Amino acid sequence: MNGWSTQDYRMIRQNGKWVFPLFLKPGKYRYKFLLDGTWIPDPKNTLYEANEYDTYNSVIWIE
Asked: What phi and psi, each to the nearest 5 degrees, are found at residue 58?
């Protein structure tokens, strides 16, 4: 989505929910959340895959 940049996109709180207003083209995207300086996979997404650091990235498919 943003090349794992910590500076570009940020989630915002809107109507009591965290949102990430971004248009994504169809395809597979790998992501994590940066929470208090620690990268974590999405705890609500059971779709994930291993990465080169022997940790996991969450995966989302956009149709």
From this structure: -70, 150
Average pLDDT by stretches of 10, the chain with 63 residues: 75 90 91 91 95 94 94
Domains of the chain: 21-62 (2.60.40.10)
Q: pTM for this one?
A: 0.78
Structure tokens at 58: 């969450």
6: closest CA among 30, 38, 52, 47?
38
Which DSSP string do the residues of 5-60 spell out, in sequence order? -SSS---EEETTEEE------SEEEEE-EEETTEEE--TT---EEE-TTSSEEEEE
